[in-house]
Amino acid sequence: LKRFSSSPPAPFYFFVPHRSMFHQVIARLPARSALRVHARGCAANSGAPESVSAEVPPATQAQLRAHAIQSGVPMVGFGVVDCIVMTQVGSTIDAVLGQTLGISAMTAATIGLFCSDSCGVLFGGTIESVASKLGLPTAGLSGSQLELAQVKKYGTLGRLFGVQCGVLLGSTTLLLQKEKKSTDKEAKSE
Q: At residue 72, what are phi and psi to the nearest 5 degrees?
């Protein structure tokens, strides 16, 4: 393997006999892969030719809006699942095990949070696949545009708004629960 004398050489150059082969391998990787992003940064630092132009075109308002929608809609589903599982499991544990084992309401809520976070991880792929089949607008952003601060901000705001809407929708199940205190008072009076 050939060592290059440029300072500092990219670490990947040590494993590839020719720079042209290195760039061919990197060009075949997905645009947002960690190896490609790292190689692009190493190539810029080592003076190697850069295939991506230095000037990244800004995203349009339509692209930013579509990116926020694409980022937010799956989070609505996650918020609904998270809230429903947490409230239902937490209240069930509080009612069943709370009195039997002397578990506080906060401990029951923590167990409900544990279960809801686990369900979020387990069903995350399903929620995202359902969201991808909804026919949402595509942003059409390039890999370099996805790294722009404005694009990241719109994606974050879309996810934030989406999870907040999902939690509000999931919270509506609390309206369907029977009031626990009235049944306890009736049981004590009998």
A: -85, -35
Residue 159 dihedral angles phi and psi, to the nearest 5°: -65, -40
Query: For residue 82, what are its two tokens?
Result: 């998270």
- Cβ(163)–Cβ(76) below 8 Å: yes
What does DSSP assign to residue 133? T
* pLDDT tens, residue by residue, 117-167: 899 889 888 888 898 888 888 888 888 888 999 999 999 999 999 999 999
Residues sharing a CB contact under 8 Å with residue 17, sequence separation 6 or more, in sequence order: 1, 2
Long-range Cβ pairs for the range 168-176 (8 Å, 24+) = 168/79, 169/76, 169/79, 169/80, 169/83, 170/79, 170/80, 170/81, 170/82, 170/83, 170/84, 170/87, 171/83, 171/87, 173/83, 173/84, 173/87, 173/88, 174/87
Whether the CB-CB separation of 59 and 140 falls below 8 Å is answered with no
